[in-house]
Write a structure and sequence with these properties.
With 354 residues, the chain is α+β, with helices and mostly antiparallel strands. The protein has 4 domains: 68 residues, OB fold (Dihydrolipoamide Acetyltransferase, E2P), CATH 2.40.50.140; 69 residues, Nucleic acid-binding proteins (OB fold (Dihydrolipoamide Acetyltransferase, E2P)); 75 residues, OB fold (Dihydrolipoamide Acetyltransferase, E2P), CATH 2.40.50.140; 78 residues, OB fold (Dihydrolipoamide Acetyltransferase, E2P) (Beta Barrel), CATH 2.40.50. The strands form 4 sheets. A 5-stranded antiparallel beta sheet has the order 3-2-1-4-5. The N and C termini lie far apart (143 Å). The model has no long low-confidence stretch (mean pLDDT 85).
Length: 354
């Protein structure tokens, strides 16, 4: 015989298995299904509960299924009491955030590094997600190598400001870079010495030279050390991203600076000049630049000599044209000091005779 129950009997029976949930409770629940705007969760009440998408992650664009897994148990916070259908509204991100703040406090105390995901690029910096907690990286706290990161990118950070009560988390990517850089510099400076030939990458070009990354440290390649020939601007011979072999010509351990030379990796043309040139020789050269005090003339590849302004004026008066860079001209080696790498020129006698 089948026992019959009234509606009241069913209500009483169900009440034996119904927990007295209320707003603010932390409950465990299993994700049953996903909807377009959230997830359905079984928390053991008369009906299932619901987690809206905006309560799943601090990233409001994230879908529930990208954070939660079906048939998996999680902890949730009841944010709204049961509606007329007995359905509770839950939050996953608030529980996750509570656990995250606890972990972040440990990270801050230990000055450790953590990985975060960029959720938004704003005018003043980056908004990031840290396991359900929203953090902010000011533009000034981004290292140069990570300045171009965008939404969805992962970067390493350290905690600058930690305030759980105010929900304020300020992070620094630059601090991580500086920490790593300090270790890198220590390693590099313990190994380099003057005279070494090393490989580097051109990372930045300025009017006064180029910065070359050697083993993770940016070193200066001065304009005067780029080539034995006259260089008007570093971009005449170099470009960013180019790999070059350079010689270490100076290491300042106190100021943590390394100076480089590219021209020293090539044969010194002045050694050849010492063998081939002597005072009194007549040489055809190419004008490289004209200055108020005279003109510089390349009399041998990589070897420049000065033709004084008086000789320049005499040449211009004789020929009736202005001397300019690129012009070929016959000159006489008047004085040659190979030790100081200096040559003074004059015009050949036949050029100045009436």
């Amino acid at each position: 015989m089948v026992e019959k129950y009234s509606d009241d009997d069913f209500e009483a029976l169900l009440s034996k298995y119904d927990y007295k949930f209320k707003r603010g409770d932390i409950v465990k629940g299993v994700v049953c299904a996903f909807e377009s705007d959230g997830a359905i969760v079984d928390i053991g009440s008369k009906s299932t509960a619901f987690v809206p998408s905006y309560e799943v992650s601090s990233d409001r664009k994230a879908k529930a299924e990208s954070v939660l897994e079906k048939n998996t148990e999680y902890e949730f916070l009841i944010t709204q009491d049961a509606d007329e259908n007995g359905k509770f509204t839950l939050s996953y991100k608030k529980v996750a955030a509570a656990h995250t703040w606890t972990e972040l406090e440990k990270v801050k105390e230990a000055d450790d590094t953590i990985a975060v995901v960029v959720t938004q690029v704003v005018k003043g910096g980056l908004i990031v997600d840290v396991s359900g907690v929203q953090g902010f990286i000011p533009q000034g706290q981004l290292s140069s190598k990570d300045a171009g990161v965008g939404q969805g990118d992962k970067i390493e950070v350290k905690i600058l400001t930690f305030d759980k009560a105010q929900n304020n988390l300020i992070l620094s990517n630059k601090k991580v870079f500086d920490t790593n850089m300090a270790e890198t510099r220590k390693n590099v400076f313990s190994q380099v010495e003057v005279g070494q030939i090393v490989k580097g990458e051109v990372v930045r070009i300025t009017d006064f030279g180029a910065f070359v990354n050697v083993g993770g440290v940016d070193c200066l390649l001065p304009l005067s050390q780029i080539s034995w020939k006259w260089v008007e601007h570093p971009t005449d011979l170099l470009k960013v991203g180019q790999e070059i072999n350079v010689e270490i010509i100076d290491v300042d351990y106190d100021k943590q600076r390394i100076s480089l030379s590219l021209k020293n990796t090539e044969p010194d043309p002045w050694l050849k000049a010492e063998e081939e040139l002597k005072e009194g020789d007549i040489k055809e050269g190419v004008v490289t630049r004209v200055k108020p005090f005279g003109a510089f003339v390349e009399v041998l590849s990589g070897v420049e000599a000065l033709l004084p302004q008086s000789a320049v004026s005499a040449y211009q008066n004789k020929t009736g044209k202005m001397l300019a860079a690129g012009d070929k001209i016959d000159t006489k080696i008047e004085k040659f000091n190979p030790k100081d790498k200096r040559i003074s020129l004059s015009l050949p006698d036949e050029e100045t005779k009436e």
